[in-house]
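Quick review question:
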């Protein structure tokens, strides 16, 4: 009897703590929503809307550049500095929140976790915006998305700029500890994303933001300008985990088709990128895409577009001179 009472007490205490954490999560999420409202127009897609941030002339004699952000981010990340500079060069620039990120809907939930599935949604959004073929720039996770877009929807893409792209099959992982395996069970992931993940994520947001820039430091005001806290909302955190978990299998399948990419392609990477190392991704990709040009920046880490922005702008301008965009 005592044991049953003890178990019941522990369960009750756990439930109370979960409810408190869920309340804190709702409060934090509401404050994030209020601080970072939509920054641009939406475009309708089947089952929902995709959020955009846009800059530059429309129409533009120089054409359109589409910016696709990486994991744990949103459209403000590539738009903040890179997009504004491209607009100043005379391009129409359209940055999109990937499905489930920023203010974009995620119709289909976990079914949209692969680059190929998201490419279909992005292609529909671009068609409804009257964009294409256009230069498509994908950073990190969206290196896979941009290449999927070029493979499955070539009418939307006139050229690719792949920045620190995660595109090749990932190395085998060792045994995953039981507590990680438990956390990745969908119901548990859902529960964690709605209780403790948001307050814990808020605590570590600053250090995590700095870590992705190594060996550089994040530019002053980066977390605010990139609206990084938007990833801490429960639905977005869940989408982020789903995307990261689905990527290895997706790359295993997708990488076999890179030789079919027929548009002009430039790959820009830092030789100090510890998150998506050039020797595992950018260099082999450059050998697979016909005519691709590889640009390695000495001493630069993962966030090339934020710390070597002008170098990326120069590559976009150079590529645009060899293609026709709309």
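Suggested answer, residue by residue:
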């Amino acid at each position: 009897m005592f044991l049953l009472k003890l178990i019941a007490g522990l369960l009750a205490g756990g439930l109370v703590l979960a409810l408190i954490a869920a309340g804190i999560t709702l409060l934090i999420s509401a404050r994030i929503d209020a601080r970072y409202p939509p920054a641009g127009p939406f475009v309708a897609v089947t089952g929902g809307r995709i959020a955009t941030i846009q800059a530059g002339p429309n129409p533009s004699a120089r054409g359109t550049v589409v910016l696709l952000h990486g994991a744990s981010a949103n459209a403000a990340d590539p738009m903040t500095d890179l997009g504004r500079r491209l607009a100043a060069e005379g391009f129409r620039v359209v940055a999109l929140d990937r499905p489930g990120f920023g203010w974009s809907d995620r119709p289909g939930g976990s079914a949209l976790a692969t680059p190929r599935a998201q490419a279909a949604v992005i292609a529909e959004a671009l068609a409804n915006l009257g964009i294409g073929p256009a230069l498509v720039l994908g950073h990190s996770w969206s290196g896979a998305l941009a290449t999927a877009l070029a493979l499955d929807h070539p009418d939307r893409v006139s050229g690719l700029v792949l920045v620190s792209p995660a595109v090749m099959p990932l190395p085998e992982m060792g045994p995953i500890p039981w507590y990680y395996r438990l956390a990745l069970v969908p119901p548990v992931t859902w529960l964690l994303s709605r209780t403790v993940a948001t307050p814990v994520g808020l605590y570590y947001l600053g250090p995590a933001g700095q870590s992705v820039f190594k060996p550089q430091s994040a530019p002053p005001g980066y977390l605010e300008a990139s609206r990084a806290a938007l990833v801490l909302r429960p639905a977005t955190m869940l989408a982020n985990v789903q995307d990261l978990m689905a990527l290895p299998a997706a790359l295993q399948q997708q990488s076999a088709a890179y030789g079919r990419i027929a548009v002009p392609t430039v790959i820009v990477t830092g030789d100090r990128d510890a998150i998506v190392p050039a020797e595992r991704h950018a260099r082999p990709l450059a050998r697979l895409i016909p005519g691709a040009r590889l640009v390695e920046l000495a001493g630069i880490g993962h966030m090339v577009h934020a710390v070597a922005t002008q170098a990326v702008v120069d590559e976009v301008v150079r590529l645009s001179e060899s293609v026709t965009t709309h």
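Why it works: The CA atoms of residues 43 and 224 lie 25 Å apart. The radius of gyration is 20 Å.
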